[in-house]
Design goal:
Length: 702
């Protein structure tokens, strides 16, 4: 009957059909056991073919327990034991326990557990016969070997035969492999991966020299020298630090990073004592971080006082100087308070208000509110006369000098600097004259359009950073345009060292948000007290209404023909180049075609000689201008193309309309003169190229 159980646990046979002991007949059933079963069955079959009972002598007892019964259990699940025998036998599934400890190196002891008995995997229990799961035990031993944990000679302990980096990675990422098959234990001498315990830190903040605090700390369970090594490993962006006792500190673990980053952030370039000296400009950051980590600590009130002062940016009209010839809006009064708070603490800052919100008037109000102070203002060449006129308009009592003449006149003026409250100069002239300012100490220094120093390697930037002043401020609507190093360069002017050296800042912060968002948030926390930026939408209720009206203009018939013809011409060129694999996909080539199309939209005569088909935009412009002038409105006309402005000039001349004109060829002194005339006389139209008029021209009358 071949449908029977071929791998039956029946252990005897009436007939060996094959003569080799691998096919058996029992009653009417033929059995085909596996080769493994045949090997285990053969000896028993040979014995029981001749007898139904076997007796053992007393001295054979151990062999019965150790060999016979285990072998029978491998052959059959139906092995019946008398109570007198079973009381000395332990039959149980195996469990594993892993014990990590440290002697001269990290060691592991592997214990097995059968029932109530636990012992080393290489040992046994006396007076008990434990039927062990040798297969599982062997699997675990092989697993340890694959994990590079190997037995020391013939002892009952294991150790790692790998370098520290592998061992750290094992305890951080692979210890779960052992936890999945058993229990893992650590000794008092070795805990695997440990964390810095903030409860073991003793923290103290005290007043230091001048504008500095002393931050002292100690860690009760780690020596001072070893803690410096931990900090150094952290600063070097290492993943871990191995303590002297063999344990590892995971330097990427969140709490460890936070503790070490605070100390690193507050410190200067090197740390070689347990006392860190940090400038009061980091007080807000220190107050927030130290309180978050350690709760209340010695000296916390010192930091809280500065924090309250800087975070309370509200306005009070009492601050506004009585002799200021202007009515400040509420947000501008807040800006004035912000300036004064930073100045009183010896800090600097960046006023980054959006263009048009009055950065200049806020700066002038601040200077005026600190009578007796000496101020230096560095501005682009095109803006220094605008600054002079703003001072004359809003703070006529201040004595202002422009250092913008010949070398001799500049030297003479700087030599008599005590006669003035405010000195105005340009970036280029400051670079040339920087040695003349070497021994002059200003109370206040402003850089207008401070993006001029965003390149830390530029000569103008280096010159500005040599200025001596109690408080330095930057005015810019774009504190950062392309990367964080631009921000660093401005901060390196207003508060040198606040954002560390260029190299340290670059390696620590100049990365993408995806790389480490925590780092970016830390930087925001550091700099936020020293940047005041408001957008027009933020203070909309304080600004006069502005109405924008977009007028779509159709091209003339002839203009459309020219446009369509040029589009076809461009398409033919591109198609031909693509077919010949010659098309240059660079931005320059593409933009050159787009620029021509833009010019045709304005007026085809800009790109074509003898064109007489008119321009839809110019026709609409003249209609709008005539309407505006009839209603006595002043109008500003901007264009990127000076050739367009020249065409408009021809139209205005033909219609007897007066205008003023500024492009890059007009000197800065002349520009301000034209601006003043336009704001005060009856001329209604001002033509301005975008490049020349993009910054600093106060054309408020239009």
């Amino acid at each position: 009957d071949l449908t029977g159980d071929w791998s039956s646990d029946v252990c005897s046979s009436d007939l060996d059909l094959s003569g080799n002991g691998d096919v058996f007949l029992y009653d009417t059933i033929i059995y085909l056991p596996s080769m493994n079963q045949c090997e285990k069955l053969s000896n028993f079959i040979k014995v029981f073919l001749n007898t139904d009972e076997i007796k053992f002598l007393e001295h054979q007892k151990d062999r019965v327990y150790k060999e016979l019964i285990p072998n029978l259990r491998k052959v059959s699940n139906t092995v019946i034991l008398d109570k007198s025998i079973s009381k000395n036998i332990v039959v149980s599934s195996v469990k594993f326990k892993f014990y990590f400890d440290r002697e001269t190196s990290i060691i592991l002891k592997l214990n097995v557990v059968y029932g109530e008995f636990e012992f080393n995997i290489f040992d046994s229990i006396k007076n008990k016969f434990i039927y062990r799961d040798t297969k599982k035990e062997e699997e675990v031993l092989n697993l340890l070997k694959n994990l590079s944990i190997e037995r020391i000679d013939n002892s009952n302990i294991f150790t790692f035969y790998k370098e520290d980096e592998y061992i750290f990675d094992f305890f951080k990422n692979n210890i779960n492999i052992l936890q999945d098959i058993g229990e893992v234990f650590y000794s008092e001498k070795f805990k695997g991966i440990v964390s810095l315990d903030k409860n073991k830190f003793n923290v103290d903040v005290r007043r230091g020299k001048e504008n500095y605090f002393n931050f002292r700390y100690s860690v009760s369970n780690i020596s001072e020298e070893e803690f410096y090594n931990i900090l150094k490993s952290f600063k070097d962006n290492k993943k871990y630090y191995r303590l002297e006792n063999g344990e590892f500190i995971d330097l990427e673990e969140i709490q460890n990073k936070e503790l070490l980053r605070v100390i690193d952030t507050l410190s200067e370039e090197k740390i070689n004592t347990n006392e860190v000296e940090f400038n009061t400009n980091k007080a807000i950051y220190a107050n927030f971080k130290l309180n978050k980590l350690f709760g209340d600590f010695n000296g916390s009130n010192l930091l809280k006082d500065i924090t309250k002062k800087l975070e309370n940016i509200s306005y009070s009209k009492i601050l506004v100087p009585n002799d200021l010839k202007a009515e400040l809006r509420d947000y501008q009064i807040s800006g004035l308070k912000w300036f004064n708070d930073l100045y009183s603490l010896g800090f600097g800052g960046i006023l980054g208000d959006e263009m048009g919100l009055g950065k200049t008037i806020q700066a002038i109000s601040f200077i005026l509110s600190n009578k007796g102070s000496k101020s230096l203002i560095v501005a682009p060449t095109s803006l220094i006369y605008n600054w002079r006129d703003e001072f004359l308009k809003f703070a006529p009592n201040l004595k202002v000098a422009i250092v913008n003449g010949s070398k001799k006149s500049r030297c003479e003026l700087i030599k008599n600097i005590d006669k003035y409250d405010v000195i105005l100069t340009t970036y280029n002239l400051l670079r040339i004259d920087i040695l003349l300012y070497d021994k002059i100490y200003f109370d206040i220094c402003f850089l207008d359009e401070a993006q001029y120093i965003k390149n830390p390697l530029a000569k103008n930037t280096k010159a500005c950073k040599k200025i001596n002043a109690k408080s330095k401020f930057a005015l810019t609507g774009t504190p950062m345009e392309n990367n964080l190093m631009e921000l660093w360069s401005i901060f390196d002017f207003i508060m040198p060292g606040f954002l560390y050296s260029k190299d340290r800042f670059n390696s620590r912060y100049n990365r993408t948000l995806d790389e480490d968002e925590v780092i970016i948030k830390e930087l925001q926390m550091l700099i936020s007290p020293f940047i005041l930026r408001r957008l027009k939408k933020d203070v909309l209720n304080e600004l006069p209404d502005k109405i924008e009206k977009v007028i779509s203009i159709d091209m003339t018939r002839e203009q459309k023909k020219v446009y369509a013809s040029y589009v076809k011409y461009v398409n033919d060129i591109i198609e031909d180049k693509v077919q010949n694999d010659e098309f240059n996909k660079s931005k320059i080539e593409i933009l050159s075609y787009i620029t021509k199309l833009r010019q045709i939209c304005l007026d085809p005569s800009l790109v074509m000689e003898n064109y007489t088909g008119g321009s839809g935009k110019f026709e609409a412009l003249m209609e709008i201008l005539n309407d505006m002038i009839e209603n006595n409105h002043k109008v500003l006309i901007f264009s990127q193309f000076t050739s367009v402005l020249s065409k408009i000039k021809e139209l205005l001349n033909a219609n007897n309309l007066s205008y003023y004109y500024i492009d890059g060829s007009i000197k800065s002194s002349k520009r301000q003169e034209l601006v003043n005339k336009f704001n005060n006389d009856l001329t209604n139209i001002f033509l301005i190229s975008l490049k020349a008029g993009g910054t600093g021209l106060n054309l408020t009358s239009a």
